[in-house]
C-alpha cells in the first residue's frame, strides 16, 4: 500500500521529464491505477476512460500529439486519462464541455 500524508505529498512532489528505459512491474502500474481510481470525480460521474500504453508506435503517436513530446517518448509506460465529453454534456449541458 502506498502511504504518505498530504503535506508530504505536496512538499515532495516533482515533475519528471526524463525517464530511464526500465521495465515497470505491472503491480506498480496497478497501484497507480488503483490510487487514481479512488480520486473523487465531479458529481461522482464516472466519465473517465483510462488507457495503459506500452506499444512503442502508439506511444509515439500520443507523444507527437502532446505538449511535452520528449517526456512522453521516453516513458516506458503511458497512463492516458480521457474524459468522455458526451457523458459530461449529458449531465451538465454545454457547461460540461467548456
What does this entry look like structurally?
2% of the residues are buried. This protein starts with 5 loop residues before the first helix and ends in a 6-residue tail after the last helix. Helix content is 43%, strand content 12%. The protein has 98 residues and is an alpha+beta fold. A two-stranded antiparallel ribbon has the order 1-2. The model has no long low-confidence stretch (mean pLDDT 80).
Features:
alpha+beta, two-stranded antiparallel sheet, 98 residues, 43% helix
Write the layout of secondary structure elements.
Elements: H1 6-12, H2 26-37, E1 48-53, H3 56-64, H4 69-74, E2 78-83, H5 85-92
Antiparallel strand pairs: 1-2
Give a quick summary of the entry.
This protein has 98 residues and is an alpha+beta fold. It is built from 5 helices and 2 strands, in the order ααβααβα.
User: Any low-confidence stretches, pLDDT <50, length ≥5?
Assistant: none
Summarize the main sheet. 2 strands, antiparallel
Helix content range: 40-55%
Task: Work out the strand percent.
Answer: 5-15%
Order of helices and strands: HHEHHEH
> Number of DSSP helices?
5
Shape: globular
Provide the gyration radius in Å.
16 Å
Ends apart, CA distance between termini:
37 Å
How would you classify the helix and strand content by structural class?
A: alpha+beta
- Count of beta strands: 2
Strand ordering within the main sheet: 1-2
Mean pLDDT: 80
Amino acid at each position: 500500500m502506498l502511504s504518505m500524508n498530504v503535506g508530504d505529498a505536496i512538499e515532495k512532489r516533482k515533475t519528471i521529464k526524463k525517464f530511464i528505459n526500465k521495465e515497470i512491474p505491472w503491480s506498480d502500474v496497478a497501484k497507480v491505477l488503483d490510487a487514481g481510481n479512488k480520486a473523487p470525480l465531479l458529481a461522482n460521474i464516472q466519465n473517465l476512460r483510462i488507457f495503459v500504453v506500452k506499444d512503442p508506435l502508439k506511444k509515439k503517436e500520443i507523444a507527437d500529439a502532446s505538449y511535452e513530446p520528449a517526456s512522453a517518448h521516453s516513458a516506458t509506460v503511458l497512463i492516458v486519462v480521457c474524459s468522455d465529453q458526451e457523458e459530461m454534456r449529458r449531465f451538465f449541458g454545454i457547461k460540461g464541455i467548456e
